[in-house]
Write a structure and sequence with these properties.
Elements (H helix, E strand, L loop, with lengths): L1 H44 L33 H4 L12 H18 L7 H13 L3 H23 L5 H6 L10 H14 L6
Helix pairs in contact: 3-5, 4-7
Length: about 200
């Protein structure tokens, strides 16, 4: 009887240990699986970096340079505005009207470029490049016409109404809005770079 009771007690203890082993063994894979699942979810939710496609640069674009300035330090090329000052001179027909028209065009250029607000170096660079780009015969021609143009410009500044008829006859529709300061800045540079006309 004692042996039978002892046997059952031992059997029950073995069964209990066996069941406990099974329970513990079952919990370990579950915990491992749960940990693995959490890691996978964290990786999937992590923000992805935006890769730069091959051959493309992610740096900021270079600033665009305005090509209309033509390298004249931000001042527009005077060639078109000064074209009327070439091809004529003292003694040619229509000199008076041509000088008024040339003066008006050059004054408009001075006003459009706010010449009085430009540095002397910038104006000198612009006008020197224009003058030096002329053929020698055109340089000599401009040197002869320049005193007449400067005189006409001064008359326009001094009394615009008095020269309104001349401006109209020369084909100038509106009196130049150039200020005394803007014109003086341009005239001062031209007087420094244009040689005196040959006698």
């Amino acid at each position: 009887m004692k042996h039978s009771h002892l046997f059952r007690t031992c059997a029950a203890g073995c069964c209990g240990i066996f069941l406990l082993s099974l329970v513990l063994a079952g919990c370990t894979p579950s915990a491992s699986s749960s940990s693995s699942s959490s890691s996978s979810q964290a990786l999937s939710e992590a923000p992805t970096s935006q890769a730069v496609p091959s051959g493309e640069d992610d740096t900021a674009p270079a600033p665009v340079v305005d090509g209309s300035e033509n390298g004249f330090n931000g001042i527009s090329d005077p060639a078109d505005a000064f074209a009327g000052s070439l091809g004529w001179g003292p003694g040619t027909a229509g000199t008076s009207l041509k000088s008024v028209a040339a003066a008006a065009s050059m004054m408009e250029w001075a006003d459009a470029n706010a010449a009085a607000n430009r540095s002397s170096d910038a104006l000198n660079d612009s006008l020197s490049q224009w003058f030096n780009s002329l053929e020698q015969v055109d340089q000599e021609n401009f040197a002869e016409a320049w005193p007449l143009i400067e005189e006409s410009a001064q008359r326009i500044l001094d009394d615009p109404k008095a020269v309104q008829g001349e401006l109209s006859d020369a084909g100038v529709q509106e009196t130049p809005s150039c200020s005394e300061e803007d014109w003086s800045a341009v005239a001062g540079v031209l007087n420094a770079i244009v040689p005196a006309p040959q006698q």
